[in-house]
Predict the structure of Integral membrane protein 2.
Amino acid sequence: MVKISFQPAVAGVKADKASASASAPAPAPAPAAEILLTPAREERPPFHRPKKGGSVGGVCYLSMGMVVLLMGLVFASVYIYRYFFLAQLARDNFFHCGVFYEDSLSQVRTRMELEEDVKIYLEENYERISVPLPRFGDGDPADIIHDFQRGLTAYHDLSLDKCYIIELNTTVVLPPRNFWELLTNMKRGTYVPQTYITQEDMVVKEPISDKEALGSFIYHLCNGKDTYRLRRRTPRRRINKRGAQQCNAIRHFENTFVVETLICQAV
């Protein structure tokens, strides 16, 4: 509170009272008048609302943080897939197959066994089949590549050391993923094929000089070897290799059945 005092002295009044005061005893002085005033309410600083820009900025920073976090999770998943899952898959892409089949192409039907090694490359989308020299029955040892990217098949006859190229027959050859699943089930014992044999008849055509145009996989297989193009023809009556030395047979397993690829020289 603020205390304010007033003195009651006025010039005119003092003159009139001067004479009276001479004759009369001086009265006691009057107390000074006091007025108590309540101070004005203290002014508060004006209230400022937060600007909307600040909250929008916070949302943006939060969104950016979430995006960075999600990208980190995606890259981590890709890393785990490439370096762990694919590494495990790479160890499981090699198969040693042994299948039994009924040799209906021979004059006397017998139950035969075919062995081969298979490597399947899912990312590159091709298969490589290695057929050793059969212990029993007909057939030449060979390395075979089915390149699904180029749509080509290459046969390397190890007995002749020659390569033969033809368009990939997708009605006979299983794609890498399907073939991998088939061989995986065979490896686990969930599928035991009791299969048959079919024949495809081919004739040798012109030689191929530009092997690089065949793709890197077939190029590495056939580089430095005489390479020829093949043409399919309608299968004829079974040709006995002993009676016709111009034909060579390669037996291999690339589906649920065994295929004998008969490669004959043009007459």
In short: Confidence is low (pLDDT under 50) at residues 10-18. The radius of gyration is 51 Å.
